[in-house]
Design brief:
This protein has 7 helices and 7 strands; from the N terminus they run βαβαβαβαβαβααβ. It is α/β, with parallel strands linked by helices.
Amino acid sequence: MSTPLVPTGPLAGKVAIVTGASAGIGRATALALVRCGASVLVTARRKDRLEALCAKIESLGGKAVFFAGDASQESTAQQAVALALSTFGHLDILINNAGAGNYKNLIDTSVEEYDQLMNANMKSSFLFSRYATPSLIEQKSGLILFISSIAGLQGAAGESVYCASKFAQVGFAQALDAELRKHGINVGAICPGGTKTEFALGKGRTEDLIQKSHMMNPDDVAEAIVFACLQPPNTRISQMTVRHMG
């Protein structure tokens, strides 16, 4: 039986949005934030998984609401941010975690696949940041984290488009850090290595490969993300890599 959460913690009173929260790093991050006392809005495309996640959070004594939609669509970002603000009254943390992978050589990659990756990884980050930032500026505080990748720091064969989308997130985070710091808003990029999730299954990864690997568990990465969320107001983690020991 799960032990109910005490509604206090280092993030008590904080409100977070986590995109791509139906599985993997996003789901683990939402739970980790709640365990630290935060209330969360979780969003992804799979409504049934979001409902189950919110039910789990509430059974533990936490507060959560969900919005089901495609993070690369403007209406999803607008409505999810509006729902977080109307439900909880304010917003403090945005975790831009939604994303996709497709490992292919350049000549085997279609224009449609390029668009899908750039939309899932970069456009979603732009949209949620665009619609979350006004309320953060108004309250003169907040944190925006982009869950990029080691592939956003170093190119790899067979990952050119994926790397391009992840490099874009890192550059976007760096520019926003320079733009929003004067408003008291903290911006950073977390760059994990391989993690045991559903990510890129059938698009360069297999279940067998993942389970036999030294990849990190989603909870491992979530702890690093929460660490970045726990920094004092005058300290920021502009960029952090998280790697497994394999």
